[in-house]
Amino acid sequence: MMRFADVIEPARVATDVRAADKADAIRAASGLLGPAGGAADASMIERAMLERETLSSTGVGDGVAIPHALVDGAGRLRMAAMRLASPVDFGAPDGRPVDLVFAIVGPRDGAGEHLRLLSKLARALHDPGFRAAARKAEDGSALAGLILEKG
Predict the structure, then answer these.
(1) Is 103 helix (H, G, I), strand (E, B) or coil?
(2) pLDDT tens across 20-31, in order?
(3) Residue 99 belongs to domain with CATH number
(4) How far apart are CA 34 and CA 40, in angstroms?
(5) Measured in whole angstroms, how far is the alpha carbon of residue 38 from the centre of its chain?
(6) Please, are residues 83 and 139 in contact by the beta-carbon 8 Å criterion?
(7) Which residues are the active-site residues?
């Protein structure tokens, strides 16, 4: 069973991140992810996530987005998390702007593991108590602790 501790480190979690728009938020998330344990750098991750965003928005509702991508040279599956200083439009189905961003990058040959992490994360984010606590976390370390407690 996959655990969040297997894919996220406290150094990849930040709060009060400034982003003017969705592209800025993805750029910031890519910076937290790259290098992601392999040859993929932040700019490669950013391009892959922006390309994925053209297929459909990764804004899932309730002020949450899960930008994600499979990237050559990504190494292993990784996740980053951010709470934005001000919400930005992600084109979410409920029309709400996003202030919580959970970004995932993994190797192209790891689609199954990638989907399992997306599913686990979606279940965690379905919990309104978890979302509220994430929005109140004092700093990145506290937010990382919440995520790790979730499983």
Answers:
(1) strand
(2) 999 999 999 999
(3) 3.40.930.10
(4) 7
(5) 18
(6) no
(7) 68
